[in-house]
From TrEMBL:
The keyword Transmembrane applies. The chain crosses the membrane at residues 12-36, 83-104, 111-132, 138-158, 174-194. Keywords: Membrane, Transmembrane, Transmembrane helix. It comes from the Bacteria. This is Stage II sporulation protein M.
């Protein structure tokens, strides 16, 4: 079973290698843009963000922490991104908007990590490793895979419109498209659970040494 699953995954990657390259490239552009934007912030904006960060650490130091609320908010944020990408995948004009979503996700990640490292140095780097990396090991690959599948489906629709000889069962393909994306959502769910229940423990541990 696992061998067959591995073969399916490898075949999917090989068949969409160019799309994966483009999506990851746009994600990296977003990360770079976010990191460079930190340098362009005014002292006033940096001061406001530092105050927010200090308030966050005060909340983090409290014993009571509503993990379920964090889980709910994480699921809402990530599922909104995933569902929007899924919807855009069934439209002809969805490809640039999907890439825009990927750039924005990369920008947020790059800005957050860049700001932490700039303001806190090595401590900010370790905080990013323990507070941001764990959940994103699941969430970011999930979002990227959904984006690739959505773009691939959109390309298939475009081909069917432009080439009359390119005959496909659109209903069957849509069901397959939706099923696969639903399965990828499970990966994002794991990331949200990690963010809600495991990451706060890591954050509290690291914050003691900051």
């Amino acid at each position: 079973m696992f061998r067959k699953l591995r073969e399916v995954i490898l075949k999917h990657i090989q068949g969409n290698i160019l799309i994966y390259f483009i999506v990851i490239l746009f994600f990296m552009v977003g990360i770079s843009s976010g990191a460079f934007t930190v340098k362009a912030l005014s002292d006033q904006h940096k001061g406001e963000l530092i105050s927010y960060m200090e308030s966050f650490f005060q909340i983090l130091s409290q014993k009571s922490f509503d993990a379920f609320s964090v889980l709910k908010q994480s699921l809402i944020n990530n599922l909104q991104t995933g569902i929007l990408t899924w919807i855009l995948g069934v439209t002809i004009i969805g490809i640039p908007l999907i890439l825009l979503i990927i750039v924005i996700r990369g920008f947020i990640l790059g800005f957050t990590v860049g700001f932490l490292i700039e303001q806190m140095g090595l401590s900010g780097f370790f905080f990013s490793i323990f507070a941001i990396l764990p959940q994103n090991l699941f969430i970011i690959p999930g979002i990227i895979i959904i984006a690739v599948i959505a773009i691939s489906f959109s390309v298939m629709i475009i081909k069917s419109k432009l080439n009359k000889n390119y005959q496909i069962d659109m209903g069957r393909q849509f069901m397959l498209y939706s099923t696969v994306i639903s399965m990828v959502f499970l990966v994002i769910l794991i990331g949200s659970i990690v963010e809600a229940y495991a990451t706060p423990i890591f954050m509290r541990f690291v914050s003691q040494y900051m």
